[in-house]
Amino acid sequence: MDSDIRIREATNVDLLSVRLLLSTCFLEMDDVAIDNFVVAETIDRTKIIGIAAEVSRNYPEIHTVAVHPNYRAKGIGSKLVRYILDRQPEQRERIYVHTVAPEFFNKLGLLRTNELYYRGYITMYYPLI
Questions:
Q1: For residue 75, what pLDDT is reported?
Q2: Which of 23, 50, 63, 129 is most exposed, with minimal Cβ within 10 Å?
Q3: Distance, CA of 100 to chain centre
């Protein structure tokens, strides 16, 4: 699967595809700009099959991770998160995550702390290890 996908920074051209994938996964952009997203696309560049966003408000936050249902369980979500985490690693001591799937981040080697619940979502910081 590694050679079948390509991860890259999103561009304005990707906006419609990102919105469509978010809609398929019952998610919204929540005023996150397209340039905060990274995308996973098929190697022939015909389809965006996964997305992730990072926003930096008071701290870095992984805002959204979504993979098209037909492409799940292939490591795409993990690759998207790793791509984000590998950017500017020297500036990361921890990252904020707002998620309904904390076990996904635990499998990536991130440790959960300060667990809170907000509108059915788990909100926490993950120290980077």
A1: 92
A2: 129
A3: 13
